[in-house]
Amino acid sequence: MAISKQHDMHKRRFSRNLGLGVVLAGFVVLVFLLTVAKVTDDGFDMQSQQTQEGN
Amino acid sequence: MSDASLNNTTLNSAAQAQPYEAQFGDYFALLKPRVMTLVVFTAFVGLYAAPVATNPIIGFVAILFIAVGGGASGALNMWWDADIDRIMKRTQKRPIPSGKVTEGEAFAIGIALSGFAVVMLSLATNLLAGALLAFTIFFYVVIYSMWLKRWTPQNIVIGGAAGAFPPMIGWAAATGSISVESVLMFTLIFMWTPPHFWALALFMKGDYHEAGIPMLTVTHGRRATRVHIIVYTILLAILAVGTAFTGVGGPLYLSFAVVLNAMFVKGSIEIWRRDEAMAEADGYAVEKKFFKLSLLYLFAHFGAIAFEAALAPFGLGGW
C-alpha cells in the first residue's frame, strides 16, 4: 500500500519549491526582456550604426 | 501494523522532531510586503515624474529591484530586531518571533537579496541608482536599526530618511542624476515619517516601553510627543504645498495638497489639544484616525505628482 497521507510539512515544502521555481523562471524571463530592451534601445542602435559607418 | 500506518507514524514523529519548515509565504513576509507597497509606489512616481522617457521594461525592472532591495533591508531589520520583535505585540507575528523562519535564514536572505538587487539595478539602469539603493539599505539596517533605533528618541526622525530614498532612486534610475525635484520628494517622505510614527506610538501604548525602545513617548512623555506631531505637521504642510510650485507640481497637485494638508494640520491640532485621559476615554480614536489619514496623505501626494506627469504629454500638467 502506497503512502497517501500528505503531511503539512510536505505542503509547506511544496509551496517553497513552487515559489522558488516561479521566482527563478520569472528571473529568466526578466533578464531576457531586459536584454531585448537594452539591445533595441535607441542609444544602442545609434552606436551600432556609427560603428558600421566607421567600418 | 501495516507498512502504511508504520510509515505514517514514522513520518509524524519525524515531523514533530523537526523544526518548523517555512513555506514560501513565510520568507516573503520577511520582506515586509506592506512597506514594500509604499516603496514601489513612491519609486514609480520618482521614475515616472522624471523629465526623461524610460523604456517600460527597464522602468519595470528598476522598480522591481528597488522593491527587492527595500524588502531585503526589511529582512535584515527583522534579523537584527528579532529580540525586541518577540516583546512587542505589534511584531510578535512576524516570521522570526513566531518561529517560522530562523534568524540565520533571515540574515542570509537579506544579504543575498541586497547584493542581488543593487547589482541588477546598476546593470539595468545606472551606477548612481544602484549606489543610492545600496546606501538606502545600509542606512536602514546599520544607521537606523543597529544604531539609532535603540539609542535616541530622534530614531524615527533621522531613520525616516531610509524610507524617503525610493522616489530619489526612481528619479536617478531614469535620469542618472539627483535634482531639486527628487530631493523635494525625498524631503516630503522624510518630514512625513515622524508624525506618522509618533501617532502610532501614542496608541500602541506600552509596546515600545516594554521593548526598551527610546521612542519619544517613552523618553519625553506623551505631551511632548503631541507637541512634536503638530510642529512637524506644520513644517510638512509648508513643504508639501510649496512643492506644488516646483517642476513636479501643478494645479492638480496644489488642490490635493491644500485639502490634504488642511485635514492633516487639523488632525494634528486635535491630537495636540487632547490629553491622555481624553485619549483613553475614546480608545485613541483621534490618534488612530490621524495615522490612517497619514497613509492616505502620502499616497495622494505622490499620486498627484504622477497625475501631473501623466497630463504633461497633453500640455496640461504643471504650470
Description:
The complex is a heterodimer of chains A (55) and B (319). Chain A has 55 residues and is mainly alpha-helical. In chain A, 82% of the residues lie in helices and 0% in strands. The longest helix of chain A is centred in the middle third of the chain and has 32 residues, at 8-39. The longest helix of chain B has 27 residues, at 285-311. Chain B starts with a helix and ends in an 8-residue tail after the last helix. The chains are: A mainly alpha (55), B mainly alpha (319). The A-B interface holds A 1-5, 7-9, 11-13, 15-16, 18-20, 30, 33-34, 36-38, 41 and B 2-4, 7-8, 11-12, 15, 18, 21-25, 27-28, 55, 57-58, 61, 64, 124.
Our estimate of the beta-strand percent of chain B is under 5%
Overall form of chain A? rod-shaped
User: Helix- and strand-based class of chain B?
Assistant: mainly alpha
Strand content of chain A: under 5%
Measured by residues with Cβ under 8 Å of the partner chain's Cβ, the largest interface is: A-B, 23 and 22 residues
Could you say how many structural domains of chain B there are in total?
Answer: 2
**Structural class, from helix and strand content of chain A?**
mainly alpha
Described by the principal axes of the CA atoms, the overall outline of chain B is flat
Please report the total strand number of chain A as a whole number.
Answer: 0
Structure summary, number of beta strands of chain B: 0
Q: Kindly report how far apart the N and C termini of chain B lie.
A: 83 Å
Question: What's the overall average pLDDT of chain B, rounded?
Answer: 91
